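Recap quiz, item 2
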Amino acid sequence: MIKSILTCAALIGATSASAQDWRFEEGSNARSWNLFAESNATFTGTVVDITCELTGDCAANCGDGARQLGILRHSDNVLVNVQKNDQALFSGGATDLLPFCGQDVDVDGLLLTDDSVGAINMYLVQFIRPTQTEEWTAAKAWTDAWEAAHPDWAGSGRWYRRAGNILAHLQTTGYFGLGLERDEEIKAELYD
Amino acid sequence: MKHLALATALMSSLPLAPAVAATEGQRITVTGEFIDTWCYFSGVMGGPETVVGSAHHTCAMWCSAGGIPVGLLAPDGTIYMVLKIEGDDNNAGGDTLLSLASHTVTADGIFYERDGLNYIVVEEIVEDMGITNLNHTDFGIVPGFAIPPGER
């Protein structure tokens, strides 16, 4: 009960502090994720390697998927940080943007703006296309790319239940990261 | 001290220059927790205090491995988006960041600011304190399905 109250209070507080950015809404066909800080946004920009853009340390092909990518928005030169693709599977946006490294693209998705947590110029990308083309690509490539890159972790169920790198940590430090013995104690407290 | 360093860094940021050395960085030492920034910024799983610490450790690993940006959350609420960790530039799913999920560290590095967001190149983890935010006592595990039913 206490947890629920605290969570609801936090959500109400965040909602009241949110100040969504609706400047790029016109023409957007993005679908809502029902996030309190979201606003539809479609704009044109250049796909860039964020580390390169900020530090001058640039890797070939935007880091080949190892680096976070962003979109340097043409209308105001703002570097938009792409946090998410359009899969509700704990997946980022770099894989979907990588084929467009250095290219000018149109994107459609959701901007996140919430003063209470410092969210600004953050983006969930849903569709991408090279500028002056017609056909959009859905930003849902992450899981296929992950499966192709990790054939040894193939199987049924969600990727995050099969990922060897995650399982290795869980088998060592447990779900709460505090060690297996403490993990068992906490689970007993929560579920017994 | 952190506020002073941040203020100094913010005052010293320079406008973009294309190609190389885009932004002037400033040295900074910051203590904070490595967090999953999507859940924190989006509120998709609840308020910010629920998506950090031991309660959210498993999800933080999922997001880190999934290529969602990792941030370093300072006690004053400032979040530094992590660009590198001790020379490792794999900030979109790399194992270094995965191994540090939810850990509180003191980090020395270079701070950048761009368009309202803070970024850091961590040059050295001065101290790794492990997971110190034991908020599972308040929130259990977030999300609830992080522990499969058969392992509860």
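Chain B touches chain A through 70 residues (CB under 8 Å).
Chain B has five helices and five strands.
End of item.
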